[in-house]
Amino acid sequence: MPALVSKSLRDHRRSLVRWTIGIGAFFALYLSFYPNISQNQDLYGDAALEKFPEAMRDLMGGLTGFTTGTGYLHGVVYQLFGPMLFVVCAAVLGNQAIARPEESGTLELTVTLPIDRRRLVFERFAALALGLLGVAAATFLLAWGLSVATDMGVAFDRILAAHTGVFLLGLLFGALSLAVGAAAGRRGPAMAVVGVVAVGGYIVETMGKNVDAVSWLRWVSPFHYYLDGKPLYQGFPGGDYLVLAGAAAVLLVVAILAFDRRDIGV
Amino acid sequence: MTAVVETEGLTKFYGRRRGLEDLDLEIRPGEVFGYLGPNGAGKTTTIRLLLDVIRPTRGRMSVLGTDPRDPRVRGRIGYLPGELALEGRERASEYLAFLAGVRGGVSRDRITALAERLEADLSVPMGRLSKGNKQKVGLIQAFMHEPEFLILDEPTGGLDPLVQQEFLAMVREVRAAGRTVLMSSHVLAEVEDVADRVGIVRQGRLVAVEDVAALREKAVRRVEFHFDAPVPREEFEGLPGVRDLRVEGANLSCTIDGRPDALIKAAARFTVVHLVSAEPDLEEIFLTYYSEEEAHHARAGVQEPA
Ligand SMILES: Nc1ncnc2c1ncn2[C@@H]1O[C@H](COP(=O)(O)OP(=O)(O)O)[C@@H](O)[C@H]1O
Ligand SMILES: [Mg+2]
């Protein structure tokens, strides 16, 4: 493994473990409610949830089939909270690649090593992707294990499809935070851009289904390429996932070009 | 032999703020070049330009015969940043092993030997190192791969005097091995013992490059003679290089500029009981460059319309 990749992974080891534990704890807590909820049709059935305003139901991904395994798993884990946790985790990792070490000054020695700047960004991205993959793999096994333990009856490959989407979405936002950080050299702008794109993108995708004024914006929302294909229900939306991966690749190229051009630590 | 550093009209503006302007500098192979100037003069700017950390606004430069944009040239350089940041739980030894790995490998014995010389403890998490100990780690990583060219930005900051001496010895060894050193400082005293030449930079401009030996020649020296009997003042007046002459009975004191020869010969006509000669204060002549510059700026200021 290239020295910069293994070094970054070593540096992030603790934070990756913490994220895995945090996301895992969230999954475990919420999925453990499922047996209770599936047995309370009148409280959590479609009819019961109809009473919530439509806009709110849209924001929560429709809130239908909450008492079925797939519906619950989607609504609680894969609609909003799971992706958002991964987005934040990835954005933090993205910032640790360039912006944070540049702010603290530790990047100075790294850029004066006999390593091409483009390779530096690439290897830091590789570390980000591998770290995120580790978190995704561990939490995937946990989600699948819990779904089996609580008798949700969701197929392995559907959970894998949804989890892959969450990972790709995270990777895209990680690349976005890396790109802004590589261009600006500061964490603040990267976090702001990620925040706006994540929250805005999510609202546009969910509300846009029923609000014509913003529906045309859905295609620029990263969430569109994860949510629209309903991976937990319908399996891998291959084309959409390729868009997510492709966008991450484009952002990586932007990060490399931006970083290669500018003054470091000014 | 080609120069280790060669710049022509090298200029860096940070937005509209001047960092460095029109620097023409040559550093020759095998020399120790002291780069002097007060805070904000442009020393760090120059150094970071040479390492391709920042990019010039205009001008040309070559380092070890190559464009610094080529990352391979950095493999032949050892660099101590002016503001060294080391942090986290990682031990200094692990960090040094990482840097050594990227630089193509350095024997562990070499790192240990340097650490012992500087009395650095490499087993402490870097975030908990004191400023002086961080500086030692910085020196180790700059020296460890025996680079052809060492660039040290204010290297002695935070080091105690004993370690400073050890560091200067390391610099002399590097020069003895025929390798080149560029070290910056805001005080001449820190570099005058090891530097062959000094460049003086002020407000973004190189105002002088001097041979340290020549600087010593020019140096102002205070001298005192004690004779066995009062001496006549006239015998010492008007001697070349003698200034601030004071004769009080059997005691004479003055400053000399350049060679003391004429004064010694004049004093030899009497019986000298005691002679005191202070070390030449290079700092003093170094400062005259500044005061001349300042006087120049002051005049320019007066002429400016209000
Ligand atoms: N990142 C920066 N942004 C704006 N001005 C800067 C920056 N870095 C240095 N400068 C300015 O450039 C000048 C030279 O600074 P520097 O090279 O750091 O001086 P030195 O190292 O000699 O103390 C100073 O006036 C300083 O304020
Ligand atoms: Mg400086």
From TrEMBL, chain A:
Transmembrane segments: 16-34, 76-94, 125-147, 159-183, 190-208, 241-259
Entry keywords, A to Z: Membrane, Transmembrane, Transmembrane helix
Molecular function per GO: ABC-type transporter activity
Keyword Ribonucleoprotein: no
A Gene Ontology term for the protein's cellular component: plasma membrane
PANTHER family named in the record: ABC TRANSPORTER PERMEASE, HYPOTHETICAL MEMBRANE PROTEIN, CONSERVED
Entry protein name: ABC transporter permease
Species in which this protein is naturally found: Planomonospora parontospora
Organism taxonomic ancestry: Bacteria, Bacillati, Actinomycetota, Actinomycetes, Streptosporangiales
